[in-house]
Specification:
Blueprint (H helix, E strand, L loop, with lengths): L1 E4 L4 H10 L6 E4 L16 H16 L2 E11 L20 H11 L9 E11 L5 E12 L15 E3 L4 E2 L5 H7 L1 H18 L8
Parallel strand pairs: 1-2, 1-3
Antiparallel strand pairs: 3-4, 4-5, 5-6, 6-7
Length: 205
């Protein structure tokens, strides 16, 4: 089976390919599609944005498409940056400026109040018009300074108590055990298998 992962983010591509390493599924990405034009992510929720991207990838390629929209929710900021995570500090998107803004806004917030979570919504769309939604969350705390260099986005500031390290300090294998994206990706694998074998399957979140 050949599918398209609707992202140009090499970190996401690597994570998903690792999860599918033992499966007979070939994963393409938007890096394999010439002259791809980004989809305007104007949905009100992560699921809305994921669906917009998945539908666009299906139309362009005719393949089963998977698209995620992920973001950071900080309790002390009333759930912000949320769906605006990638462009928190404005356009163009920039991880460093986003992290700088987050640190500035949380400067006076005590360590025990810096509770946050990563949330992911993953939509799989088929050429036949079927859509499936899976979701995942990862709980943690926002540190006062960056740690680690293996992640992307807010990973260097997102501390995972279970491992006593940030997301950016985890190995890919460790990250794929607990990350919000890995949870959503892992839930969609049985659905992919069922579609590949011609068996209908209903997605659950």
């Amino acid at each position: 089976m050949k599918i398209i992962l609707a992202t140009q983010n090499q970190g996401k591509i690597r994570e998903f390919q690792e999860l599918l390493a033992d499966e007979d599924i070939e994963v393409l990405s938007l890096l394999d599609i010439p002259n791809w034009e980004d989809v305007e992510e104007n949905g009100e929720t992560f699921a809305d944005n994921a669906a917009l991207k998945a539908r666009a990838a299906v139309r362009r390629t005719g393949l089963i498409a998977l698209a995620d929209d992920s973001g950071l929710e900080v309790d002390a900021l009333n759930g912000a940056p949320g769906v605006y995570s990638a462009r928190f500090a404005g356009e163009p998107k920039d991880d460093e400026r986003n992290n700088d803004k987050l640190l500035q806004l949380l400067e006076t917030v005590s360590d025990d109040k810096r509770i946050a979570r990563f949330r992911c919504a993953l939509v799989m769309a088929t050429p036949e018009g079927e859509e499936y939604l899976t979701e995942g969350t990862a709980e943690g705390l926002i540190l006062r300074e960056r740690r680690g260099s293996d992640g992307f986005g807010y990973d260097p500031l997102f501390y995972v108590p279970e491992f006593a390290r940030t997301m950016a300090e985890l190995t890919l294998n460790e990250k794929n055990k607990l990350s919000h994206r890995a949870q959503a990706f892992r839930k969609v694998i049985p659905i992919l298998k069922d579609l590949g074998s011609g068996t209908m399957h209903r997605a659950t979140t």
